[in-house]
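Please, structure for the following, as tokens.
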Amino acid sequence: MNTDNALASVPNDPSIISGGMGVRISWWVMSRIVSMMGGLGVVSGTGLEIVYPRLLQDGDPGGNVRRAFTELVRRQPSLAGPVWELFDKYYIEGGRPPGTPYKAVPPCRLTRIENFKPGPDSFWELPREMQVLVLAANFAEVWLAKEGHDKPVGINFLRKVERPLPWALYGAMLAGAAYVLVGAGSPDELPAMIEKLSRHEPASMSFKVYGTSSDSGNFYAAVRPATLDAGGEPLAAPRFLAIVSSYGLAKALYDDPATRPYGFVVEGSEAGGHSAAPSKKCFGKDGRQLLVYTEADKADIAAIAGIGLPFWLAGGYSSHARLKAAQAAGATGIQFGTLAALSAQSGMSPADRSKTARLLAAGELEVRNDPLISPTGFPFKVAQVPGTISEPEVYQARRRVCDMGLLQVAYLKPDGTLGYRCPAEPVETFVAKGGRVQNTVGRGCLCNALLSACGLPQVRADGYVEPPVVTLGEDLAAAKELLKDLPAGHDTYTIGRAIMSLRKGA
């Protein structure tokens, strides 16, 4: 990838980036405002292939999905048939009746591409319908955030949600994403993928398969634009920002020109969502793991600054003073998440946002770094909010169901096909697939909980509504300050006020 202009921050790099949080917490409405105000609005690319079918089943409020799909088909006429077939498959005029379950979306399962490349490595791809759905949903989210202005918009992906990622990236690039941010794993393959997809060429990304031996070769999820007759003029390659938590990873990515990003987002342990585990394991008297972070777990900011690429600091930087401190340390700016998630324009369901904001304003909100809840095995920040899976009784009352599969891992079955398992699925099912029973203890279905948190909860046939999870960072001071002296009838602040507080002080 061409990095000639990546040795120093360029004038139009924004000083403020909004976090690409959760499932649609960072949605196009909020991100559009951030970008129009001169920051970099970042949409979350996680789970959009589930979000958009649910929006269609709710009647496509505002006609936004139809408008975005129309633009995609205008740019890529060959996609007209499959795109509108998907629209018709899920769209319900006027929306589904209250209490009706959403139609399920097939999980992103891979099938092997025969005779793709010689050698021991194998290449896999999504079924055609899912290729189109992933592409179209990510195109739509970016395009809607860009609609009506010429400011840059970014998209955030999780490396660990790997099977749909190549097609999601292509869809975002077709929409003109200016920045791509990837964390939750080493994103070393992204620069090469971006370069190839900018020319509409096949690209691939490795994925982990359990139960394989050294002679099995590597496994790759491949995207082949030509299979859908997609293409056209070369696309502008977005600037790739690798989300890292250590100097070691940043330096390793920089040292190889093939993996070198445009810049970094350096995320501290205080940030919301998933975080890296502390370097040393500590255990309480009850035998449970304690997450204790020390100076050894902090990224060496001076060393990262010495690399010479633009970087932004995240996790506890949501204030004007911290922005200035970050810039004094050599950073281009900061990324803010919690402050955005609690704003009135975030994608969090109004009920959950209101409850969370009231608790914070009263000084009663606690955010715990749970070492078990995520099926990935990484710590995950959970705000303690009534009615969410943070409450033991709510967690215990939920029947284990794994029907989305975003965090499932692949394993090799005896017949050579791929199987998928998740420690949050029914225990007996997980064990039958080769999983270890101890890995199921305390796990939660983040897929269903995060869809619920953005106001799109699944309703089961018996009327049970999937409960949400609220994830925030540990630094709540800036958000709490903005909750003071709100206008009558308001329970939180606007994203515009949040940005102004970052620029000028609260």
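DSSP finds 17 helices and 19 strands in the chain. Residues 16-347+478-504 form a domain with the TIM Barrel fold (CATH 3.20.20).
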